[in-house]
Amino acid sequence: MILASPLNSFEEPKYRKLTYNFEDLEAIIFGMRTSIEDKIRIIKIIEDKCKFYGRDDFEFYQASYSSELGEMLINRIHIL
After folding, report:
1. How far apart are CA 1 and CA 15, in angstroms?
2. Which of 68, 22, 71, 29 is nearest to 49 (CA)?
3. Domain locations in the chain as residue ranges
């Protein structure tokens, strides 16, 4: 999911909360400015949800910018 608004109506965290079926979520792509602390917190939440739902197929990715290529790159994060 990408949350976007031309009116910036998502400035407050309460407006950025969405509901979804965890079974429908396949991966998370962390943005370039996502802090390490937030990544760790999110990964832990997803690990707990995967255990609860009996899943072992969830993936994490990291967005980065390549000035060499002039484009955004999405790389898989390998978590043991």
Report:
1. 14
2. 22
3. 26-77
